[in-house]
Amino acid sequence: MHKHNDTMKPLFIFLVCLILGLIGGQYRDADALARLVKVPLVSSTIQAAGSLGQPVVNYYTRVSIGSPPKPFNVQFDIGTNELFVPHYSWNPFNRNLHYSSGFQCKDSATCVKNTNVFKIEYQHVKLEGKRYEDVINLDMAHYTPGTELTSGAAAGASTSTALNVSTTAAAVPSRWRQSFLAIASASDGRFSPLKVDGFFGLGAASKSMTGIGSILTNLHNANLIDNLQFSFWFNPILDSAHGGMLILGGVDTNLYTGKIYWHKLPAPQSDRWTLALQTVTLGSQPVGCLTPSRGGCQAKFSTGLSDIYGPHDDVMKIYSFLNTTKSSTGIQLIDCRRIPSLPYITFNIDGIPYYLLPSNYVRKTVDGTIFKKETCYVAILPTNDEANTWTLSTPFLGAYYSIFDMTYGQIGFAALK
């Protein structure tokens, strides 16, 4: 009898381990199979569209609003909580597009109108419009199945990850109800040259100043995603039409490698994606956050801007060290042949250094002459708007895989595959 028990022990232990292994595997699989909405992004560069004559890079996708669905090209911006497209009565956004008219509530059988007029400010432009609620579809139909998106560590780097849009993008458009603004007037026409109709905010707040609920929360309530997270991968090859991927609901492990470094937002209920910033250095030379007695530095993040913005004096130091030349419009030019020998820029967050290579912060532009002369400029611009604040936009975010977590109020960065 004892011999029989001794014989059965290894089998019993094996079965227990097998069951535990299967259970563990189920949990791992459950994490891997978290519901995500994967949104391919289109990249578009408009020459001389910036305030200083610099090119503007937009990363956008197509959504459809209403019943029947009306298409709009929108850019997702983590720097705002507002969502807006043009009203049918005023449409400067898409002057260059074939989507020639704005949103009109009476054309949609599912539209709910709010009679209040709202005023907002976005990128220093004052906008005014009415709020509506309607059905929104993330429409993937205009992306060619089988087209590859590639990920690399830097512009021109060899690629190691290929994404097939036909498999990573949802075959059926994701559909949910969402409030948004239809803009009827603006203080200037800054957005006119851009190939976007509007902007959908992915700010850190659960609601915007105009009472619009978060896209992420609404997707979660509609059972389209499991987690209140989203992440971005931007294609570092700027001349590619495939701008990258927005992952709503979590992360795509095919797009990053190694550890995710998490950083808590300074304020638990912050409405903006901001982090404390310790130092900014160019090579080994300190250039930013040098006066902590003034309250320290902060980094705020935006996917609606294609240049980095920093305090005026700090950015002037960068120009001086790089020996740039000011153009007639105000951007700082640099000889394109110098790019390989330029120093990297380091942003230190919670003691972790995040490096920008010259290929991240120096951009190429083409002049308007028949010769299409190529010049390079430093995509870091000075601002006097906020002391000790750096706006880290797509040149920074494109250097890393970036994750934004609303549940725990944190931002994570990982190395690109």
What does this structure look like?
This protein has 417 residues and is mainly beta. The protein folds into two domains: 35-144 and 172-252, Acid Proteases (Cathepsin D, subunit A, domain 1, Beta Barrel); 254-416, Cathepsin D, subunit A, domain 1 (Beta Barrel), CATH 2.40.70.10. Helix content is 15%, strand content 41%. It contains six helices and 28 strands. The protein has helices spanning 2-32, 165-168, 215-221, 312-322, 358-361, 394-397; strands at residues 37-46, 56-65, 70-77, 83-86, 112-122, 125-138, 148-152, 159-164, 174-186, 198-201, 229-234, 242-248, 256-264, 274-277, 279-282, 285-288, 297-301, 308-311, 325-326, 332-334, 345-349, 352-356, 362-366, 374-378, 380-383, 389-392, 401-405, 410-416. The strands form six sheets. It has a six-stranded mixed β-barrel. Strands 16-15-21-22 form a four-stranded antiparallel beta sheet. Strands 19-20-24-23 form a four-stranded antiparallel beta sheet. A hairpin with a 2-residue loop joins strand 5 (112-122) and strand 6. GO terms for molecular function: aspartic-type endopeptidase activity. Disulfide bonds join 289-297, 336-376. Residues 1-25 form the signal peptide. Belongs to the peptidase A1 family.
